[in-house]
Design brief:
This protein is mainly alpha-helical. The chain has twelve helices and two strands, in the order αααααααββααααα. Helix 10 packs antiparallel against helix 11. This is Organic solute transporter subunit alpha.
């Protein structure tokens, strides 16, 4: 065992280097790479700020606040990734900040779909009494036997609560994790049963699945109604941010913990994997920021007002036409 340890570069067993150490070891390619990625993160933030000004001026309240929250997901993740790229010791904090922000975005996207309908009351007028399919991902996509539920005020409250709990509890667990880390009780690489990481992370994963379920249910129910508002590509961008910021990060971290990502002094395997993830996220979030700008920075005509007596009028017209047809035959 001693011979094996002697063959490992001591730098591969060290913690993340300081920012000044990163700058000193950069070669020409590294300088160009870091400069381009920093420029992308900066442009993402500037595009978002410009979009906020447009939305604040053109979109009525309270929808403009919700749109700004949803649009901020990609720029915030890109900015946090850029900070983590330059300051590797802060990667845990930047990742947790991005995850906490996206937890709020999950709830805000559900609210956005409701506000595109005109708000809670207008949604209940349009869809009240209709059936809503709940056999959808990520919880019950295979459970086709689940019965549909009726859209009521109570159903809407439960859907909103299912997403809101993630926004609140994710922030709470982030604070708890940081407090435990300062006391030496929280370590992402410690997967022992006695460690806190093995208990906190799976629980947060369950909360994530529970929060995503109401959003998927609402999207399935409203995707036809909100087609004119480009809700399908908006939902696709929201899902893409989710996959890249959560699933991609988890996969790379697992590979790094298993040693599948080679050590490159002064970066250990885990730190190098985290830096690779930050680089990918900056590029991906920059592209998503540009796409979401095309989707949200434009004017959409509001949905036509819902007439509660429209179906009755149609039935009356049918009855009148049938009566006239019977008179003609007589």
């Amino acid at each position: 065992m001693d011979d094996f340890n002697n063959t490992i570069d001591p730098s591969c067993l060290q913690e993340a280097p300081l920012a000044i150490d990163i700058i000193k070891q950069l070669d020409v390619f590294g300088i160009i790479l870091y400069s381009i990625l920093t420029l992308m993160a900066t442009l993402s933030l500037l595009v978002f700020l410009e979009e906020c000004i447009y939305i604040y001026r053109k979109v009525p309240s309270p929808k403009k606040t919700t749109i700004i929250w949803v649009n901020g997901a990609a720029p915030v993740i890109a900015t946090m990734s850029c900070l983590g790229l330059w300051i590797p010791k802060a990667i845990m904090f930047t990742d947790m900040t991005s995850a906490s922000y996206f937890a709020i975005v999950v709830y805000k996207f559900l609210i956005l779909m409701l506000e595109e309908c005109g708000g809670d009351e207008e949604f209940l007028r349009r869809c009240g009494g209709n059936k809503m399919r709940i056999s959808t991902g990520p919880c019950c996509c295979c459970c086709r036997c689940l019965p549909s539920v009726t859209v009521t005020r109570r159903t809407l409250f439960l859907l909103k609560l299912g997403s809101l709990q993630f926004a609140v509890l994710k922030t709470v667990f982030t604070v708890i994790s940081i407090v435990l880390w300062t006391n030496g009780n929280f370590d992402l690489s410690d997967l022992e049963i006695t460690g806190t990481t093995i208990w906190i992370n799976p629980f947060v994963g369950v909360l994530t699945i529970i929060a995503l379920w109401p959003v998927a249910i609402m999207f399935i129910h409203l995707r036809t109604t909100l087609r004119s508002q480009q809700i399908i590509p908006k939902y696709a961008m929201y899902q893409l941010v989710l996959v890249l910021s959560q699933l991609q990060t988890a996969i790379i971290n697992i590979l790094a913990l298993n040693g599948d990502i080679a050590c490159a002094p002064p970066f250990s395997s885990q730190v190098r994997g985290s830096l690779m993830n930050q680089q990918l996220l900056i590029l991906e979030m920059f592209i998503i920021t540009l796409v979401t700008r095309l989707l949200y920075r434009r004017h959409y005509d509001p949905l036509p007002a819902f007439d509660m007596h429209e179906e009755d009028n149609e039935e009356n017209v049918k009855i009148v036409l049938q009566g006239e047809k019977g008179d003609d035959m007589a």
